[in-house]
């Protein structure tokens, strides 16, 4: 699967995008873990608020497109993010993606006729302030930029992405049914799927369109299938929740000014479901055995966990969950 680093960063959790739902709720985390023997599941590390948060090990209990993407990219990366919950630094690319998403979402608060590019760009400073309030760590991105030059360039890039959106869609003609919609569905197998859909449009005829914004560039055609995986995942969840197959899946690439659409059919969603069940089996096996293999790719250059990765001479932290030996043969 080829996609841009920027979207990998935002969509797979690099820089801890706030749009990503918590991987598990403590109640759903299954057996108590070594690191969380009481099952309290307080990831903030209850106790002295002056202490930095202590990561709490988690047993995977649900799957989002981002985490499924992590496992497909590198099982060890999945472990570091979902089970060890190792902290990651925010990145400029991921944070810009979060900022642009917030601006596009908030623009729909305005009456249709006022949803203009100047108005959208005017939302950027306020949304940036809000982001710094809710996630103070993103302010550190520009701590070494006393004259604000780099920040100004970064905000300028965000403006250009927002501006490009108006060449691809006309928000004055859209009335989204939902924005930043959290969805969750349980399959018959018990696997819970969850995620956040950027925008859901519903036509007067009842047809549903699922829209996702990407701040990176569109993939080459031979990699489009990988890019659509996330959208088919959402379509499967919507189908399971509402018994309606979305009419259209739409990826809006602000980085390159492209729109990729796909009209799914039931067979597509059944295929994705089978793939996710197989993926979940592999995740459960790795969870039980503690056998999480690194899978190096060019994306390793963007991985925050190289210091813990054997591919880069590092050692993973002790595995925090009980293990059973892998079956032989
Ligand atoms: S550095 Fe590469 S191989 Fe190692 S954990 Fe990160 S993504 Fe996986």
Describe this structure in words.
A hairpin with a 5-residue loop joins strand 3 and strand 4 (208-214). The chain has a single domain, classed as Lambda Exonuclease, Chain A (Alpha-Beta Complex). Strands 1, 2, 3, 4, 5 and 6 form a 6-stranded mixed beta sheet that branches. It has helices at residues 5-11, 65-73, 75-83, 92-107, 117-134, 149-168, 224-242, 266-289, and strands spanning 62-63, 178-186, 192-202, 208-214, 248-253, 258-262. With 329 residues, it is α/β, with parallel strands linked by helices. Residues 1-49 have low confidence and may be disordered. It has 8 helices and 6 strands. The protein binds iron/sulfur cluster. Iron/sulfur cluster is lined by residues 74, 76-77, 294-296, 300, 303, 305-306, 309, 311-312. It comes from Streptomyces viridiviolaceus. Residues 1-65 are annotated as: Disordered.
Overall mean confidence score, pLDDT: 85
* CATH class value: Alpha Beta
In CATH terms, what is the fold-level topology? Lambda Exonuclease, Chain A
> What would you call the structural class?
alpha/beta
Number of alpha- plus pi-helical segments: 8
Helix content: 25-40%
Question: Could you tell me the number of beta strands?
Answer: 6
Radius of gyration: 20 Å
Annotated CATH architecture: Alpha-Beta Complex
Low-confidence stretches: 1-49
Distance between the termini: 31 Å
């Amino acid at each position: 699967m080829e996609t841009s680093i920027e979207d990998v960063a935002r969509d797979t959790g690099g820089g801890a995008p706030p749009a990503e739902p918590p991987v598990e709720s403590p109640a759903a985390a299954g057996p108590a873990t070594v690191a969380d023997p009481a099952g309290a599941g307080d990831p903030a590390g209850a106790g002295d608020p002056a202490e930095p948060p202590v990561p709490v090990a988690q047993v995977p209990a649900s799957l989002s497109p981002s985490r499924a993407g992590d496992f497909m990219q590198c099982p060890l990366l999945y472990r570091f993010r979902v089970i060890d919950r190792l902290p990651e630094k925010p990145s400029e690319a991921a944070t810009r993606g979060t900022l642009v998403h917030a601006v596009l979402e908030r623009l729909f608060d305005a009456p249709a006729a006022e949803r203009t590019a100047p108005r959208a760009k005017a939302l950027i400073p306020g949304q940036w302030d809000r982001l710094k309030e809710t996630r103070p760590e993103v302010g550190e991105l520009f701590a070494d930029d006393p004259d604000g030059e780099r920040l100004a360039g970064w905000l300028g890039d965000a403006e250009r992405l927002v501006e490009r959106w108006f060449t691809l869609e006309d928000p004055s003609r859209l009335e989204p049914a939902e924005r930043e919609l959290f969805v969750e569905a349980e399959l018959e197998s018990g696997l819970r799927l969850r995620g956040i859909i950027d925008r859901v449009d519903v036509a007067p005829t009842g047809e549903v369109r699922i829209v996702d914004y990407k701040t990176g560039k569109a993939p080459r055609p031979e990699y489009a299938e990988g890019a659509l995986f996330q959208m088919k995942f959402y379509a499967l969840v919507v189908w399971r929740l509402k018994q309606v197959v979305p009419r259209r899946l739409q990826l809006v690439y602000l980085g390159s000014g492209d729109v990729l659409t796909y009209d799914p059919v039931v067979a597509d969603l059944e295929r994705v479901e089978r793939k996710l069940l197989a993926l979940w089996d592999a995740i459960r096996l790795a969870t039980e055995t503690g056998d999480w293999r690194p899978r190096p790719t060019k994306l390793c250059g963007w991985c925050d966990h190289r210091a813990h990765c054997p591919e880069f001479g590092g050692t993973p932290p002790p595995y925090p969950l009980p293990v059973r030996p892998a079956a032989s043969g």
